[in-house]
Design goal:
Serine Threonine Protein Phosphatase 5, Tetratricopeptide repeat, single chain, mainly alpha
């Protein structure tokens, strides 16, 4: 007896033994001790009323072991699975309930959204393309799900029509109104999108998705402070949603609000754990603070665990580009473009990589598709100008620099582009003045200096072109492109030894710089030294 009392009251053992006893007792209760399937089903319903999904799920599974054709148990187990995040299990049970004859309206209200969450858009359209449901609330839920499926397939008009049908059946179907707002935004009608999402918030301020979409819309129209407030509210209302945290942190990083971004990242880690997006955002923060090696190492781990994460592939490409690891950078960027051919960031980074290694022809091939977009950005237009300079097409280069000036007149480097534009229309003196001022303002950049070199060269003023080139070399003495440009200048002035020295220096700075290697090969051939050109 005393031995038993010692064990029962020992502080290290009393709680575990008590916990085991309680668990064993609960298991006995849930097994049912001879209960019928119907009694187990009734017990499960009582647990559901208390929001005890674990206990309800056990009872429903017990009931189905006894009677696999109990339609209501299948239906309720599907609902439990859905609320516990087991979407595949939910779809399986709900479809079985439908086969067993459970009321279609009840099943449809759960199954249609579950199929959307599972990404089973074809199955959803096949099952509910003709909904065959009668209750207005269910019609609205099913039509909203159909809208989501069409939206995911980029069938914008069909999605919008489905959302409108849903709202016609039930004006309080918030998912449909949010979906309609998304389609309006995709079509460019940001005002209609904002009105729709604000109506959701007025009707149901607790809907986190509405605040998240409002935040995106406000940011899109430049209202960053209100956009941040909306995203913070979305996170507060639904802290377990990764997308809301992601939108908030990325916006804070874009604004260089590093302390706030760190706090938001800490909150994200607490809410969703070490999710791949959390680790990606940590790498993004390192990149923005110029900790490139740390960002690279973090991204390697992210991609090892989540190899299909395109944002991580893209950032890895950009990081390796900054580290001059061009082969690895291109592998990452190529994977992004294979999955998303329209991704301009990846394409621009690839162009920059090929420019950096002197592969100007390949850079030209890559930049041309990007220039087909309706409104190319100033950055893209400026990059195109640099590509045409590298290919020796100075007239096209000036044209793109002029377009860049018009695309961003308030840009910090507007003087650069304005100078090019003025030269393009014949006001050379004013153009050179603007470019020289821009060169002084932008100590780290070289676009103004490139434009000055090209402008003076086209005007036939080799002396001023060489002076601008010297300033370029002062700013970036280790840039192979800069020395390659000097080689071109020397060729233009027929100073072949100086040209050869400049091309050789470009190759010394970067042995893979193809443009300089080709220029040297041409010089060798011109000097009847083919063996040197081959070497």
């Amino acid at each position: 007896m005393s031995e038993n009392r010692t064990v029962r009251h020992h502080p290290r053992w009393s709680r575990p033994i008590r916990g085991i006893a309680v668990a064993a007792f609960s298991a006995l209760v849930l097994v049912g001790c001879g209960e019928t399937p119907e009694q187990m089903l009734a017990s499960a319903k009582s647990f559901l009323e208390k929001q005890d999904f674990d206990a309800a799920g056990i009872q429903l599974k017990n009931a189905l072991q006894e009677n696999a054709n109990l339609a209501e148990a299948r239906f309720l187990l599907g609902r439990v699975n859905l609320r516990q995040g087991n979407v595949a299990g939910a779809v399986k049970e709900l479809e079985r309930a439908l086969e067993l004859g459970y009321p279609r309206d009840a099943v449809a209200a759960e199954l249609a959204p579950a199929l959307v969450r599972a990404g089973e858009f074809d199955r959803l359209l096949a099952e509910f393309g003709d909904p065959r449901v009668t209750a207005p609330a269910t019609i609205a839920i099913v039509q909203a799900a159909l809208g989501d499926a069409h939206l995911a397939r980029r069938e914008i008009d069909k999605a919008q029509a489905a959302y409108l049908q849903a709202l016609g059946a039930n004006a309080d179907e918030h998912g449909a109104r949010i979906g309609f707002a998304r389609t309006a935004a995709i079509k460019g009608d940001l005002k209609a999108a904002e009105e729709a999402v604000r109506e959701v918030i007025a009707r149901a301020p607790q809907v986190a998705d509405a605040h998240a979409l409002l935040g995106d819309l406000l940011v899109a129209r430049g209202d960053l402070s209100q956009g941040l407030a909306a995203l913070r509210e979305a996170v507060r209302l639904q802290p377990g949603t990764v997308a809301n945290h992601y939108a908030l942190v990325t916006l804070l990083l874009r604004q260089n609000a590093i302390a706030e971004a760190d706090a938001a990242l800490d909150a994200m880690k607490s809410a969703v754990g070490r999710h791949p997006f959390t680790r990606y955002l940590l790498a993004l923060r390192d990149y923005r603070e110029n900790r490139l090696v740390e960002a690279r190492d973090a991204l390697m781990q992210v991609l090892k665990e989540s190899p299909g994460l395109l944002v991580a592939e893209l950032l890895a490409g950009v990081v390796h580009l900054r580290l001059n690891d061009h082969e690895i950078a291109r592998a990452h960027l190529d994977r992004v473009l294979q999955a998303a051919p329209g991704n301009l960031v990846a394409r621009q980074a690839l162009v920059a990589s090929h420019l950096a290694t002197g592969e100007s022809k390949r850079a030209l091939e890559l930049v041309q598709p990007a220039l087909q977009v309706p409104q190319p950005s100033a950055r893209l237009l400026g990059l195109a100008g640099q590509v045409y300079i590298a290919n020796g097409d100075f007239e096209r280069a000036e044209d793109y620099f002029e377009r860049a000036a018009k695309a961003a007149p308030a840009d910090v480097r507007a003087r650069t582009r304005l100078g090019v534009a003025r030269m393009a229309v014949g006001d050379a003196d004013a153009g050179f003045t603007e470019l020289e001022e821009a060169s002084r303002m932008d100590e780290g950049g070289i676009q103004a200096d490139l434009a000055l070199v090209v402008g003076h060269l086209r005007r036939g003023d080799a002396k001023k072109a060489l002076a601008a080139q010297a300033e370029l070399e002062r700013k970036q003495p280790d840039n192979a492109l800069v020395h390659n440009l000097r080689g071109g200048l020397m060729l233009a002035t027929r100073n072949i030894p100086a040209a050869r020295a400049a091309f050789e220096k470009a190759l010394a700075k970067q042995p893979t710089y193809l443009s300089a290697a080709v220029s040297l090969a041409r010089l060798d051939l011109a000097e009847r030294r083919p063996e040197m050109a081959i070497g």
